[in-house]
């Protein structure tokens, strides 16, 4: 029996079934982010783990500059394509030891829905690296982090509620049945880590940074959490 090859990471998220959801979710995330942490036109932002670039696209007109980086080359390509029209948006190659050039450091580093794909040592390394990329008084916002007790059933019902509010319930139900299987195939060997808020706070403290757990997550997934580090 032949197995259909798994779609690439970006191809998965760019499928019509996800495109609508991802677009609506990005609008919702950026609205919550801006309400919680107002942006200034002078701000320099880094979207770490930018995915297909929806948040970069929404933020680029509002800030002085927005760099983006993703571990997946196809995600970086998708973002570059999506935001090519914005002079404020630019890729940052974090594989290089000194990636900033003339741009300087960032006032805000966004890490939305990413740290669950990192192991504990990896996040420890990135926390220390992010610190070197932060401007004085800059902040790192780690959001949409699933804790150990995050309930899959709760997340599914939460997504259906969100889909109903944003008028894509029928599509969410239709696609939901096959999606879990396809997501796990696509994700392949990538680890999924559950974090306690206190672990993130301790990682920040180990780097001389203060961290505050926000009263609410910055996405519609109410069972997950957000930490602001500074
Ligand atoms: C669920 S998507 C979130 C995308 C985007 N931040 C958003 O809010 O829609 C997770 C993203 O994290 C990226 N990613 C996973 N592990 C990563 C790592 N170790 N370093 C950087 N990016 C990573 C993936 O390639 C993917 O684009």
Automatic annotation (TrEMBL):
Residues 46-140 form the Methyltransferase type domain. Transmembrane segments: none annotated. Keywords: Methyltransferase, Transferase. InterPro entries: Methyltransf_12 (IPR013217), SAM-dependent_MTases_sf (IPR029063). GO terms for biological process: methylation. The keyword Methyltransferase applies. The keyword Methyltransferase applies. GO terms for molecular function: methyltransferase activity. This is Methyltransferase domain-containing protein. It comes from Pseudonocardia humida. The lineage of its organism: Bacteria, Bacillati, Actinomycetota, Actinomycetes, Pseudonocardiales.
């Amino acid at each position: 029996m032949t197995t259909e090859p798994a779609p690439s990471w970006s191809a998965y998220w760019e499928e019509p079934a996800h495109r609508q959801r991802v677009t609506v979710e990005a609008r919702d995330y950026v609205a919550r982010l801006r309400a919680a942490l107002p942006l200034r036109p002078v701000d320099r932002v880094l979207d770490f783990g930018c995915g297909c670039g929806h948040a970069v696209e929404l933020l680029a007109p509002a800030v002085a500059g927005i760099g983006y980086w993703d571990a997946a080359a196809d995600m970086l390509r998708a973002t570059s394509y999506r935001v090519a029209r914005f002079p404020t948006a630019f890729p940052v190659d974090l594989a290089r030891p000194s990636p900033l050039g003339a741009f300087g450091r960032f006032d805000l580093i966004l890490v939305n829905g990413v740290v669950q794909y990192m192991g504990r040592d990896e996040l420890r390394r990135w926390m220390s690296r992010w610190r070197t990329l932060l401007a004085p008084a800059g902040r790192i916002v780690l959001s949409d982090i699933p804790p150990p007790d995050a309930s899959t059933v709760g997340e599914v019902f939460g997504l259906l509620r969100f889909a109903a509010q944003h008028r894509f319930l029928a599509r969410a139900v239709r696609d939901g049945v096959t999606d879990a299987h396809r997501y796990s195939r696509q994700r392949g060997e990538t680890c999924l880590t559950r974090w306690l808020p206190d672990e993130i706070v301790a990682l920040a403290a180990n780097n001389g940074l203060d961290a505050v757990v926000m009263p609410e997550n910055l996405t519609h997934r109410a069972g997950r959490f957000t930490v602001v580090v500074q």
